[in-house]
Amino acid sequence: MSYGRSAPHRRRARGRRTTKGFWTFVFLAAPVALVFHATAIVLVVGMVPTAVAYFIDRTEAKLAPITVGSLNICGVLPFLLDLWFKKHSLAGAFSIIGSPVAWLVMYAAAGLGWAIFYGVPPAVVNFHVMRAEARMDALRKAQSELVQEWGTEVAGDEHEEMLVAGAAHPEKDAKRSEATA
Amino acid sequence: MASDTQTAEKEAEAIELGGRYEIFPSHPLTHLDNAAGQAFAARGIKERRVEPFVLICTASAMSRMETIQLMRSVETLGLMRMLDAGVIRWPDGSRRLALVFEKPAGKRLMSALQDVIDPMPEEVLTRLVIQPAHSALVELSGRGITHGGIRPTNMFYRDITSSGLMIGECISSPCGYNQPLLFETIERGMALPAGRGLGTVSDDLYALGVTILMLLLGRNPVKHLDDDTLMQMKIERGTYPALVGQMRLSFTITEPLRGFLTDDPKQRWTLTDLDLWLNGRRLSPKQPQVPKRAVRPFEFHGEEYLYCRTLSRAFGRFPQQAAIAIDSGDLDRWLRRSMSDEIRANSVTGAIETASAAGKTANLADRLVARVSMALDPPAPIRYKTKSVMPDGIGPALQEAFIKGENYQPLAEIISGQLPMFWVNVQNDFKPEFVPLVHTFDMMRGYIEAATPGYGIERVLYELNQGMPCISPIVYDQFPLNPPDMIAALDVAARKADRPREPIDRHVAAFFAARNRRFDEVFLAQITPGIEPIRRCLAMLNILSETQRKYNGEPAPYLADWLVVILKPAIDRFRNRPLQEKMRKQLDQACKDGRLVELARIVDDIDQIRQDQDGFAMAKREYQAIIKELRQIEGHIGDREEMAETLGRQFAAYIAAGVGTVLAAGIILYYWVM
Fold it and tell me: Do A124 and B651 touch (CB under 8 A)?
């Protein structure tokens, strides 16, 4: 009996898709790179962190290369503009990749991307949980008010279940509210 | 005599009766006491011409309440005049019936039947007794009242000079209740004192006849006989021969004596005959009628019987043996051969057949004997088990059984076994009063068969005794005679610490149903013990509040408090707690006002109930929605890693893309400008 593919199968399939996408990209980008070879050299060298992010992100959404790449390209962009507006040649390209400042800027920008990639999710989760807890408190208060107004019968069987689960304690909440009042 | 009242006035604090009479409880008049209660001195507040005395009836007295109003209109020298009646609060806290009568200035004619007095000459007897008694009986019969208490011990001299006599009162007890057997006709004498029925003027004339004889002789001619022997003699020989025996009486007085003491009511003298006699017209004396005698005796329970009446009486005493004798067929043979009475034999056969028609039940033998006894002696009372009652005496007999705590089951079985109908069927002469009698007992049978409160034997008790107060233990000492009285009595009962849980028991329910013709009997079915508590308490409230409203009853704050306690389920059915609180406050206010209708309006408001139900349903839905949302949120925030992987990473990508776009645009702009 088979209920679907196993985990190794899924990994292999995803790997195949990634590889296939990569080779499609190479196949399409290669002729362009041959024409704009100076730009291609700077891009290939400067966007290495994004490529690394692409390969290590095993998810389908590929959010790591998007996050890292968004800022990585910002690090590469000033040098590309320099190349395009001043002297678009192999010498210019080698001059850029020979500059430690260029490497620092391009890779620092990628580093910022990684920082966002790892730093933002916990903050987002914390914010979201806080908001949810505030909502839950409001709902529990509304529950208590209903019990206060209509008695525990308003909860029906749910009341007992919730008491067992400890998820809600409308009677205690009601008493607590009375005490507070 | 006048000094009695004056002394009393000094000694005691008076109790007022309706602002018309003052009663002095500390001044008893023992010589005027009777079986129903004690006599006390009294004084008229407005009416000072007549000196009254008051009879304070005991709680167990069975006064003829329905006759009181009629008696107040009777005014004749021959009868103790009734001046007033009402219920008063006695010093012990109970409510008692007070009957105010004209006080006789002279003494009682005889204090006991065993007393010996000077024989009364005929002309004195006629002037002092017969003439006043005639006028009294004319007055009473004109109002359809039977005195039932004519005897020498209930006669008083009007004044100290002994110039006139008056017959004592008769309404403090049922007709014939205190009458010794000697003064009762054979038929009524065979019944229990409480079961002698309403009687007729003919019964009073019989009692007058015995009274005349006693006064003529100055003694009781049969005082050596016990009641049983006296009855046997009356049956076998007839009353006149049994009482007069071989005594020689003057022809003048023999004539009315024979007329009054005739045992056949159709042959007995009437008031017209007496009137004619008083006016000097002499009639030929009635000859005593000897009952039909059998050729050979019927042997039963070691005795020999020659008369149907004596045999019927013996059957009533020994029903088990009688049933065997009836089943053996001996009775039928004796009636046909020895008594040669085919009609009676057929009547007995009919009685046997109808008794068996209901099938073999536990009481078959008793029912059979009762019916056969009636067939043997139709005018006699119904004899069933230990009870012997006239059909119209079943009510008072039932009342007595309840008041004395005796077994009333035989009386209930008399009604459910349709014995009164059978009694009517076997009577030789049809009387118009039999029609309502049959109708009444048909209804009573229906009441007995219903088990719910408001029906049963209690309902029969109050239906057959229309003037009877409610004898529920809750209100027994309050003497409630009608529905508004009952509300007031319950209000008093509500103040007691040992009050029962509910104000309506079987007696109270039956009393309300019997005394209020337009009573909504739907409520009765709802106060049955097994019914849902809310419906039960609301039904009780509705019964009481409707009664108070209908009769414009006095406020009953304590009863309202009592009702609020039992109304808890009706208040608790409202789910909304603030509404409950508001209702409790409203009920508190209504209790203070004592208006039961207001209580009903508060707890039984249909719109309010509907609103509460709708609100509760909505709140329940809201609660469920909250639970659903809570579960969703809990599920959502439960796996934080997953949330970080999905939502957090997406958000990071958006931020990076946004920042990247802004930076790129800035860089391009910078290069463009530069």
Answer: yes
